[in-house]
Fold these 2 entries.
Entry 1:
Amino acid sequence: MGAAASPEAELGPVRPAAGRAFRRWTMAGAFLAPTIVLLVAIAGFPLAYNLYNSFLHLVLTEPGTERFVGLANYRQLVASGDFLQPFIRTSFFTLVSVALEFVAGLGLALIMHRRFWGRGLVRAAVLVPWAVPTVVSGMLWKNMFDPGSGFVDWGLGALHLPGATTAWLNGVWTSWTVILVADAWKNTPFLALILLAGLQVIPDDLYEQARIDGAGVLRRFRHVTLPMLKPAVLVALIFRTLSAFLIFDVIYVITGGGPGSATETLSYVNWRAFLVETNFGYGGAISVALTLIALLIALVYMRVLRLET
Amino acid sequence: MRVSAWRRLLGEGSFSLVVMVVVSIAVFPFYWILTTSLKTDHELSLGTHGLWPAAWTLQSYVTLLAQYNFLIPLANSALVAAGTTLVSLVAGLLTAYGLVRVVPRARVAVLGFILATAFFPVIAMVGPLFFVYRDLQLLNNYLALIVTYLIYALPITVWMLVSILGQIPKDMEEAGMVDGATTFQVLWRILLPLALPGVFTAAILSFILSWNDFIFALSFMTDPARYTAPLAIVNLGQSQYQVFYNIIDAGVVITTIPIVVLVLIAQRRIIAGLSAGSLKG
């Protein structure tokens, strides 16, 4: 780094333009290299390596059997239902959780946008669930829904409501309910904060004008708030869609993919292929598929945002 | 007049009610965790009987610290998160300076690449990096996690610092340059102090995001002495016959406290940072 510093000091106005440009780019290299090298190493390289491995039979517990198998891993992916079922499950979860969290997040953002006594405290209270580790929120809700030492069943019983003896993690839909609650509790604040930032840049004049034109609360919301909020909505939705699609921690902690394999999502299946079955060929193929899906979502995001300077 | 005053009061009242419900939903689970962690094993085995423990005890904290040595995973987490934060700040500051001052023309391309990595599915990194770390004998080594966690920390750090450095007028550094300071002296003595609020926010976000990881720790750390706090929590209090939620929850409480403190100290900065990071296209 020190080497890059000294040329800049000598860089006088009399130097020829070409040498100057050269020095400028070498210096830029020194500044940009650490980040680019690191990110290529931890994200770019795995992508290439997964692609390569996905054409191999590569199982760590079967040493010496490593060989090129062409598209066999991808065929297994399509044929076995080992991918299709988790894919449908994951998509369904993504759809439901993002829709639910978006509506709740928008409500929360509208609440926090108002000026009221104790708003700072409310914001802090809402921010904490976002900031805790996903494992913590998973454990916390697993405990809340525990039939023995939990709160939910006891609460339902105390209010004489049905379901007071539910063993939540024994059923498929009840398991998804617990996962959904844990996920929504942690991620709704994030959506709310992005949407709140969007609300705060809407100029007051617009509301004033709409009011003068005789628009009521609902019409102001529909014709002023929503259109102006669009950029924030898109950012929030796409961020959340992607992270919901890749859900892993909550599944691992709360259900471990069970009952049976009913809550195994794509990331979970992928992780199992890598570290339980040590099948890095097949795992690589799943990773490639997941990366393509993520790429698709990222492309949509960049397109929508139209990266300006 | 009186009718509208009533209506307003009613409106305010229902608004306050909604606010209280929201805050309860956010906070109540923490209350439940805290009280469960203060229950005795015996009371826990009897099932829930009320909203607070019949007898309060710190026994599960003692068990957690003495028997499960929970301070070790906490220290591991802190070490790794701090390491990632430091690397991320240094690399991020250099990159941000490079993009804002040296080659602004590369800004769109480089930021686009960095944003793309932020969208990269972390599970797809697990397999290949496991191979590499195994071959480099870095499994169960802090370095593996410090480097890997940069995928969480570096993109948001660069984005935030670019937006902060972009707001600092060029004259400040030019004055320094005239005085004969080198680029790095200018960066260190003039820009860094001006960008400090942004650096601080980036540091907090990097720390929180690294502290919260589970999947990489689960995949690369198999030695319980090297577990991070989230990984240790998952392996806590499981016996064949009963799940000791009081011990698990003690771990949850201890792991959550540093995060709560950070959030309370830096609430405004975190919110500003998150929204800047996501809305500045």
Entry 2:
Amino acid sequence: MSVIPNKKALNMRTNQYTLLLSALTISLWLTACDNKLNVTPVNTVATGQALTTPADLNALLIGAYDGVGGGNLYGGNLQRDGELLGDNGEVEWTGTFTAPREVFTKRLLVTNDQADITWTNAYRTINICNTVLANLNLALQANRPNVEGQAKFIRASMYFELVRFFARTWGDGDANTNPGVPLVITPTTVLDASSTVPRSSVAAVYAQIIKDLTEAEAKLPATDATYGFLAAKGAAAAMLSRVYLQKSDFPNAAGAANRVIAGGVYKLVGAGEVFDTRENINGINTAETIFAIQITDQDGTNNLNTFFGSTDVGGRGDINITDTHLALYTASDARSQLFYEDGDGQIRTLKYINQYGNIQVLRLAEMYLTRAEANFRAGTTLGATPLADINRIRARSEANPLTAAQLDLATILRERRLELAFEGTLIHDLKRTRRNAATLAFSSPRLIFPIPLREITTNPALGQNEGY
Amino acid sequence: MRNIFILLLVLWGISSLPANAQDRRVTGIVTSADDGKALPGVSVQVKGTTRGTQTDAAGNYSLALPVGANTLVFSFIGSATQEATIGNRSEISITLASDTRSLSEVVVTGYGVQSKRNLTGNIARVTARELENIPVPSVEQAIQGKVAGVQITSLNGKVGQGLQIRVRGNSSVSASSQPLYVIDGIPVTSQDQSSSTAPTNPIADLNPNDIESLEILKDASASAIYGSRASNGVVLITTKKGRAGKTVFEISGYTGSSQPTRLKEWLNTKQYVELFEEARANSVALGYITTTPTSLQNRFTRYAAGDRTGWEGANPKYDTDWQREAFQDAPSKQYDFSARGGDAKTRFFVSGQYFDQSGIIIKNRFRRLSGRVNLDHSATDKLTIGVNLNVAHTKNDRVSNDNAFSTPMQIVALPPLHPVIDPRTNELSSSYTLYYNPLLNRDFAALQTRVYRVFGNAYAEYKILPSLRFRTEFGTDLLTQQEEEYYGRETTRNTGAPNGQGTNGFAQVVNNTTNNYFSFGRTLAKNHDLDATVGMSYQESRSNVNSVTAQQFPSNAYKQIVSGAKVTGGTGTETRFSFLSYFARVNYRINNRYLLGVSGRIDGSSRFGTNNKYGIFPAASAGWILSEESFIKNIPVISLLKLRASYGLTGNAEIGNFGSLALYSAAAGYAGVPGQAPNQIANPDLTWEKTLQTDIGLEFGLLNNRLSGEIDYYVKNTTGLLLGVNVPGSSGFRTQLRNVGKMDNRGVEFVFNSSNLIGAFKWSTSLNIAYNTNKVTDLGGTTLNGSFLNRAQEGEPLGVFVGPEYAGVNAANGDAIYYLNTKKADGSRDRTTTNNYNAAEFVPLGNPSPKFIGGVTNTFSYKGIDLNVLFNGQFGNYIYNGGGKFQSANGDFFDNQTTDQLNRWRKPGDVTNVPQARLFGANGTGESSRYLSKGDFVRLRTITLGYSLPTALVNRAKLNRVRLYVTGQNLLTFTNYNGWDPEVNSDAYSGNAVNIGVDFYSAPQPRTIIGGLQIGF
């Protein structure tokens, strides 16, 4: 008998071994692979990991500044649209983007993509603030009021911009029944039926804004000790003065402006130093800056440079300044020198010549102008007389001082225009003072943004504005 | 996992049946019916078994026969498969006739091959001969019009760009609708890798001349084996393999050039001045603006480089045809080399190619240098090992996307008043032009994408039993891409960077795949044949993208980042995904006429939400070869009649890698301080999209297969469409990814092949027509807005154009008017008109996808002359010109206008479609059906005339084959579309699947003519 098994049996056995081996290979793969399906993202992180420490909360708060400083918000487009919508012939829009052109011609379509993106970016920023406010327990005890104050300042500022652009202005009809914007003050973690929020009344939105800003003013420190550019007490008070002024609540407007001035944190600087007239250099805040969006060559976009600046300074040269505007200045006024002629012979403002320059959202000069106007209209002299305040602003620009006889509401408003030209307050000032924008009355539906078509189709609880 | 073992056990049981004794041998020689020469590499198979061999270099074969073997099957690519009854013979020699009707050829299926005759699914096949030497960079363009139900759209006329491929319509809204590409068994990277919105095409790294066959798996039965990635169809590419026999060398080359297929007509200076003077006056009269005539004339003078005579008078000094400046001379050339041969043990195919095609638009060029080695080695009777390896280097000189001032085609917006060269500086007109002058990018900017690509696989196949094989494959696909951009200081107006800007981007995509599977095939009993495949696959993919941007370069001589004084931007990102899959397929054949198939795949993926980690994708199919039945077999005119039907489920897993998670992004820093913000809201239920597809097909062959064809009817019901559903903005988010939508595609495909004339003068025709309707049936109540008028809207086809319906011009006052189209109480629409754009209802205006697509190829040959003519076309679709509101806006803004704007309304009573010219008047410029047109076209896609020198002459020079040819691509286009080209979908918008049929300054397709030479020896 042979010890060698017969050939057929050997074949069979090799076959079985091979099969077994193959099966083994596969099963090895199976066990090795199963956990390979757990791939975690690295560019972005899961929410649970994102918010666990005080530093995480601080980063989220900075995310809110990044949001509010985006080009579509205080990074420039809110101010640009405030100027274009209110324009009375002082500028000319010559750019190709249709959305701002519709704003300039005051014929917005419901599809206006700026209205759409302003809306969603503002709410995105509000949601960040809401998330910060819902997670305040993460903040270090000592820092908690500061974090809360900053988040409320940003949230209130965004609601203020939304209600000004998308709703009838205060006093045009009944603010208690005029639809404002949806008021959301808690973070969104899931989307469900409760996410289709209807518009709150204009009055309700204002009430929330005032509540937030009042609390922010109370909780914020006098200055930002960490970076020097985050919102501090003065920013909340300054925004509050704007809100009250928009409501024509003059005593409160004067009071808020006065608190900023009296706080002594901010100082008027020389007329030529208010704006950063260097080129291509990272922006700086001045002593006059109450709150500014920080722009660097690494981060942020100065959209006021984009639209007002000539192509030589990194802009698109879309907005020309007309002679109508230049004629407003008197000869000695240093502010009349804040213009330049570009290569095409177009007149442009020097305020936005630095593409990496910071964007002044709130500055001290406005507080003097607000205090002057509010005192004038309320018949008070809180902090100073209106004449003193106006002349203080004129003096720093070497403009001739006004006499008491010259002082009236029109001069005060004219001074406000000269000082704050192209800084985004125009349409809102026209509306609150019941003046026309071009041929349109302050209450014209054409001066109110449409609720974006995207929102109308997504959220059936929203009603559209008149005229759209 | 447990199921797999059960399956393995079953297989093991079957294969352990006693093997049959091998006691007989048959030998013979196989020759070609065409020229009587021996055919090496012919597959000789014992029918119903996997027992088989190949003919050697001299065409000889020798095969041991199992007991009960009664038929041999001879098959060879490009030849009609023949069967021979063995009987008592020990020598069987046959001749194989070449066959283009492909009825009995072998087609590649996922993880295997199958005879077309026994197929129960729908697989379209294109072979090498139809793909070779077409002057396009990428193989998909070479099959345009050749496959029923497959729509291939070049986004625009830029060379080397991404393409849009749709198999049986769009089956997704926001996940990808592109098919899965599998090369030699390994899924490869086919997704756009561009850093701009203008996509690149990684499939262009493959030399089309390396391809032996390309199969498109269309129905569920064919594609379910690719499970969650099969809903958009699967493209299987098989590269050329070595063949035993004398080494065959081929060298070939061509050279030619391209021109734009079509130009548009633009105003000249006189017309421009006239139109805009009129537009100003009209707008002033209406109180829109206060611009004085002088102010406008000053603008003209400024435009005319400060020279009043530049625009004034009867013969203005400047009258630039800017459109012409966008185009360049566009040479193309290609050189190929290949060698193919081997012996019974080792077979090889090696090839190399240099391809160089310039785009018709300035600064656009695509070059590819590629090499391939495919090697198969039979180590023993049982073990075969091999590698397929492709190395390629492509260089693509690209231009900005269609929606950039710097892209060449936007040059048409410049007024003809601008001289090309500013006489004041003797340099290109720059700062004073209405828009940025794209010629500055031609001279002072560069954007080059260089790809280094290696893909290939190694395999081992072991024949465990004559009827059972195990194959293991490991494949890798390494894509390394460098994108280098430099914009000189002259381009400041466009970049905003005063002293130059450079960007260097680096992307690497690594895909590793392993497939391990058993194939089993045997005749179980008389008239019962079984084929089965079972196995697993694992794929992991990792992509890394980095880029750095710097500004402030001392001069344009310095272009690398190191020379930029300021690094202004940088990014580095990574993403990964993995798939773990098990698959199986069983085909059962009774009596050689009743066919049953079951296939399926279980897919697990890192992409799916925690609640849906694994998915099962089964399909079943059946076929009945009626022509085997006696009642038909006797009808001589019918050669083949087959009915087949399939039903199954596939998925679409292109849902993004981390779409299910709630995510924070740290791209929210501010002024150098780190920041973070929520950027995605969670959806743990997120899963693949599901498509249930039914296919019923009829295949026929008549008159000895001189007439043959296929008719298929299919219904694809897609559910769980991934949608970035619009959510109320007040939530802080714009969209949430959800599986909410439903969409249906249904259609009919018709393929017809005919040998009209045989003999010395041959003429054959191949026709395919496909009809498809697409309807989005559910979007969870929302509407997705694409660009311009594109929408995804319930009850309408994907991408439907929705907007105000333009009603023309009010003859009384020249106002653009729109139909109100508001719904009346009786349901009808109010057809009164309004001049208020906002008052007009948004209504569906047209479908961007064609109802019919098709192609017809006629092939003629006589002696050495061959002629091949391919027309293709599409019908029933609309195109929206997103640039219309700038290009044809009756003088709304200072963009140069198309000449049709001269037909504007001028006085009461004028009947025209062009409203009164109003500067800044927005008279009819809102997005509406005014800029919508029909997109039907028929195009002479490819025509090739070749001449092969007589064999006798060629042989005398020790050559095999010499062929001269000329090929024309896109020579003629028949269309009523008045834009540049009806084959369009602007690359600035195509990233969003809702955007279909958009024209936006999109370059026309090139019309290319080449002449070439092929030499074989």
